[in-house]
Specification:
The protein is of the alpha/beta class. Among the domains are: 181-279, Rossmann fold (3-Layer(aba) Sandwich); 282-406, NAD(P)-binding Rossmann-like Domain (Rossmann fold, 3-Layer(aba) Sandwich), CATH 3.40.50.720. The protein is built from 15 helices and 16 strands. The strands form three sheets. A six-stranded mixed sheet has the order 7-6-8-10-11-9. Strands 1, 2, 3, 4 and 5 form a five-stranded mixed sheet that branches. It comes from Glycine max (Soybean).
């Protein structure tokens, strides 16, 4: 492999091959690599640029450390290039004689990751391939499923966008159990880093011996996402902010409850025909949790005929989006009286009309005086990670509500 051929691919439009995060002296880096060889390191990572410009470098390292494996790596700066360009990069790295090759890109959209997954089918040596950035996280988490050799993780206290923490790899995702037959589930949301889904679902899969993994999916465009990942291996999705209403358009079938609410938070790909079926589990789950909390705190004073501690109680809902709709329909089914606030007053009025409640302008929330024992349900992004201590009402009003229920995302 000559430096001329390396230069040719480097000039692909919008493609820049860089040296990772290292900004120091190149000679010192080569000295560090030489020291790794002399110390018989198990793995030595050499960048493609150095391996191409110094054709004998890899051979020299192998001759002086027969035990260690040589990784030739390439970092692509800018948008993820087309599939055929990625394949050319793989060929360049394989031609260096590396034992293992590594390709790293920057994901501008989660749909680009499919190009990364497809590379494993063409590689003749072990391959490490992933994308950095929050949208690239699944490239690491699903790497073992598609044949990746290594998965990288960030150290505690030093988070890196797109890299799972080492703790989460071992505790939440348990990637050592992921293989080609693993079914993929995940949260479709924007943002997605706040999700606690992985630490709830993945242990459950393991407890029932189900070969599945639940991952966060930062999605910018629902249409592109569903058209890019139609495989039966992508078996189901949770749906978060801001897509619970929009996602109905992409479901082949919608459960009647979800249809009446106008929001979907759970999608299952039906195994027999691959169709996407949408459900709403927010409604019953959130309302039941509120009822349980009221009973636990000795507040089971609802109307006995309806059998719910919410019956007859004032239910103040902040947010009339997908999560808010589910809460409103659930609270109404229990006999609660609803007052709805939303930044979009027309949306608040529409929801209030559907559940025979009252809509008020969002700016009036700060002055709203709830009656004793009222419920405050927060279905807005206020209070999401990392600002989890925020609430959508003034601090002075918070003690006047019986319960603050956060149902964001």
């Amino acid at each position: 492999m000559t430096s001329k051929s390396f230069s040719k691919i480097s000039h692909y439009p919008c493609l820049l091959l860089t040296g990772g995060l290292y900004e120091g002296d190149e000679n010192k880096r080569l000295e560090a690599l030489q020291l790794a060889v002399e110390l018989s390191a198990d793995f030595i990572d050499v960048e493609l640029k150095a391996a191409s410009c110094l054709p004998t470098l890899v051979e020299h390292m192998r001759n002086h450390n027969s035990h260690g494996k040589i990784i030739v790596s390439c970092y692509v700066d800018g948008t993820t290039p087309p599939h055929e360009v990625l394949l050319q990069l793989v060929e360049l790295m394989q031609a260096t004689g590396a034992d293992i090759i590594k390709l790293v890109t920057l994901a501008a959209d989660i749909t680009e990751i499919k190009r990364i997954f497809s590379l494993f089918l063409y590689c003749q040596v072990p391959l490490i391939a992933y994308s950095v950035g929050e949208r690239g996280l699944i490239s690491q988490l699903l790497s073992p499923k598609f044949g990746g050799f290594f998965v990288y993780g960030s150290l505690a206290g030093n988070p890196i966008p797109g890299l799972p923490s080492l703790d989460s790899i071992q505790e939440a995702y348990k990637l050592e159990h992921v293989n080609a037959d693993t079914k993929v589930f995940g949260l479709i949301s924007k943002p997605v880093s706040h999700s606690r889904g992985p630490i709830l679902h993945n242990p459950s899969f393991k407890d029932v011996n189900y070969n599945g993994i639940y991952v966060p999916m930062f999605v910018d465009d629902l249409k592109k996402f569903f058209s890019t990942y139609p495989s039966p291996d992508f078996s189901g999705f949770s749906v978060g902010i801001p897509y619970k209403e929009e996602v109905l358009r992409f479901c082949d079938e919608v459960h009647p409850l979800a249809q009446s609410i106008g929001a979907v938070n759970t999608i299952i790909r039906r195994p027999r025909d691959g169709k996407l079926v949408g459900y709403n589990t927010d409604c019953e789950a959130a309302i039941t949790a509120i009822e349980d909390a009221l009973i636990e705190h000795g507040c089971n004073d609802g109307e006995a005929s309806l059998g719910s501690p919410l019956a007859g109680r004032l239910f103040v809902l902040v947010g009339a989006g997908g999560a808010g709709k589910a809460l409103a329909f659930g609270a109404k089914s229990r006999g609660a009286r609803l007052v709805i606030f939303d930044i979009d007053f027309d949306r608040a009025k529409s929801l209030a009309c559907a559940v025979f409640g009252e809509a008020q302008p969002f700016k009036e929330l700060v002055n709203f005086q709830p009656e004793k024992g009222a419920i405050l349900a927060n279905a807005t992004p206020v209070g999401m990670h990392p600002n989890t201590d925020r609430i959508p009402v003034a601090e002075v009003l918070h003690p006047l509500f019986k319960l603050l229920w956060k149902t964001t995302g």
